[in-house]
Amino acid sequence: MTTTTDPHKESFRLSMLIYDTRYRSLTFQAITAVVLALCIWYLGNNLIQNLRAAGLNIAFDFLGDPSGYDINQRLVEYDSQSTHARAALVGLLNTVLVAFLACVTATIFGVIAGVLRLSNNWLVSKLMAGYVEIFRNIPVLIWIIIIFTIMTAVLPGPRAFRGDDPAASMLFSSFAFTNRGVYIPMPWFENGIFASPTMNWLLVLAGFALSWFVAHRINHWATVKQEATGIRPKTLLPLLATWLVPFLVLMLIMGLSWETPELKGFNFRGGIKIGGPLIALWFALSIYTGAFIAENVRAGIQAISKGQTEAAAALGLRPRRVMNLVVLPQALRVIIPPLISQYLNITKNSSLAIAVGYADITATLGGITLNQTGRAIESVLLLMLFYLTASLLISLGMNAYNASVKLKER
Amino acid sequence: MSDQSTNSVAFVAEGTIPPSPPPARETGAVKWLRENLFSNIPNSILTIVSLYVIFLVLKNTMPWMLNGVWTTSSLAQCREVLNGETGACFSVLTERWNQLLYGFKYPVDEYWRPNLALLFMIVAAAPVLFFDLPRKLLIFTAIYPFLAYWLIWGGTIFVPLIALLGFVVAGMVFQTFSKGSFAIGFFGAVIAAFVVWLGGGALIPESASENAFLSSVPSRDLGGFMLNLMLGATCVSLSLPIGIVLALGRQSDMPLIKWVCVIFIEFVRGVPLITLLFVASVMLSYFFPPESTVDLFLRVVIMITMFASAYIAEVIRGGLAALPKGQYEAADSIGLAYPQAMRLIILPQALKISIPGIVNVAVGLFKDTTLVSVISMFDLVGMIRGPILASTEWNGVYWELLGFAALLFFIVCYGISQYSQWLERRLATDHR
Q1: Partner residue facing B37 (CB), from A123, A138, A139
Q2: Does A22 have pLDDT greater than 90?
Q3: Does the model's ipTM exceed the 0.90 cut?
Q4: Which residue among B270, B283, B398 sits closest to A388, beta carbon to beta carbon?
Q5: What residue ranges do the domains of chain B occupy?
Q6: CA distance, residue A363 to nearest chain B CA (Å)
Q7: Is B300 helix (H, G, I), strand (E, B) or coil?
Q8: Which of B152, B230, B218, B222 lies closest to B378 in space, CA to CA?
Q9: What is the pLDDT of residues B67-78, one digit of tens each?
Q10: How far apart are CA B339 and CA A164, in angstroms?
Q11: Using CB atoms within 10 A of its CB, is residue A160 exposed (0-12), middle (13-18) or buried (19+)?
């Protein structure tokens, strides 16, 4: 006498939209969609009305017009007749340049400070703690301005280098530190294989790539040999030769020589000029971010438990190998992700270039171009697009790295 | 046998020998020096190099600082007093003290208002920062934003009063209806608040600000370090709730809400603050109704709040992810609804884990408020680079001014980070 009870058939009621978990999420999403659409419509409508009132439209053809302004620091050909797009490209390359330089030096500063902060030496570790605290707790903008002020107000002008008994003299008679920038010797080839210097440098780069490949093969061969016989063949000399010989041969063939800067007229000529704004930005970003990287490095090293070091020592590994084979691979897994997000910060903070007049993309596209053409919306959108792309690329790299070093678990 | 052996002992010590003092090189300062500074040769070299660096820094700064001049009215006078010797012209600080702190347009007679607001801010922040204080103080914290607005901007008291009233009514509506359903309570509260604000706003007469108790100060007159503090405090406190909502939204099962949050967070985190400030200064006004004028301060607050809330959302997401899954499951298994589970179980723990990260964001944000000087607002850095260094009296006093700015920021930021470390130790409930 089993009676089957049908499941209680519930007719749909309106209140189920809120109380029934099956429909509630749909209700919320519908509300969100409506609110979102209303917001977009409202903002878009305002935008259209405002643009119409100001007699503007959204168009990107201003990028093709001649820019009419000059840029001191540039990596590619540019003059005031070039287009706004070209100016933006110059700025973009300048951003990449300063971000790259600052990433390299910030890493160096950070690693040194982070390791020294863990030193047994009380004075050194306190000094490094002071460095980290002072630089972390003062805005980077203030650091950029301070270092720029050192560049412009403390360093001597080119005039001071003149005369029989000059007030300032060049370092090794080839480096000049002036308030207009730092002049360093420029390497060039007397009889290059190609006519254009760029091609010659690419050749040198290709030589390095070849060396790298051969060195890689040698290391691989040594590892195979070691695994087969238990003895690692000595590779120091072949490796040194692989790195140095192609480079030296290329340099000899092409006749490397240095063009030193010389004081001519009111300014230095020749050599490479690194502008004051670039140096201020570069140095400030590296020393500021270096303080953050130092903390990451310290945290990474401290995250490796003491047992790891002791276990490695118990196996009979020598201290250098303990560091190389046990501690560093584990510490790097902790250090690298925050390190890369610091690189991201450097790239974003390089936009502060505008405060010292370094022509990065914020200063060209978002500064002068914007003010000259009045194309605020287009310029700012392009600017954001650039930074978004850059950050996405960097985070993609970070994710790839994270995936490659992830602990292989069950 | 035993007798013999005791007899054969010629000497038995009757007491213990008093301990001899440790060797001089193993005690006190000498030991400390040997262990910490000169334990081996590389260490000794490092010590000597560090001492030399410290000596160089002191040698170059001490005469300059100790010889400082505090009472002249221009750089030329200061140089006259110094008479060619090294020395700082700190008199720029005493001379332009008010400008550095309040900007150059805030009415001098009204300086007591921001001062009082700052004092109240300390009182209002105290119960949030220190849990031992009586909870009743939180009522003052809730009133504080409206009080501070009234003190700093002045004008009619009805504007902050109606804003406050809107929140109070919304809170009451939420209390009444949220017992049935969180959603009804929430949307009811939002609607009630808007009704109060719109209705109340229509009631305030146009001329109310003219003969108000406190004369009204437009926001373009704000400046100096006060502006940094205001931007920092406002944006951090506004971005905290928004950040929580964004973090929860990013974890949500509802795809639309999730993707809206993800896109917002990743977009804001991908662009530098400067570009967002450009948006505030040149672009945002295109998105407001044509006849409205939203002043620059508010536009900047909107953009910096967006910026900070994205970062805070990521920090809180980290906290949410760090909670063991058992906590979520336990909350579900005792039958808590989503809002209850979040409010009672998940968020208290997740926020606790996120405190150091939130404080880091707050410190970073406070430092970033100096960027507003780039879009020609006169905050501390803007005042220094603009009106003060450009004036004929003080053209060329870089170090005193920049050093002062650096010192102010250092004190505040270092203080906050020390507080965060104290809080972390305080909240550490796992007995490690």
Answers
A1: A123
A2: no
A3: no
A4: B270
A5: 72-106+222-432
A6: 11
A7: helix
A8: B222
A9: 888 888 888 888
A10: 81
A11: middle
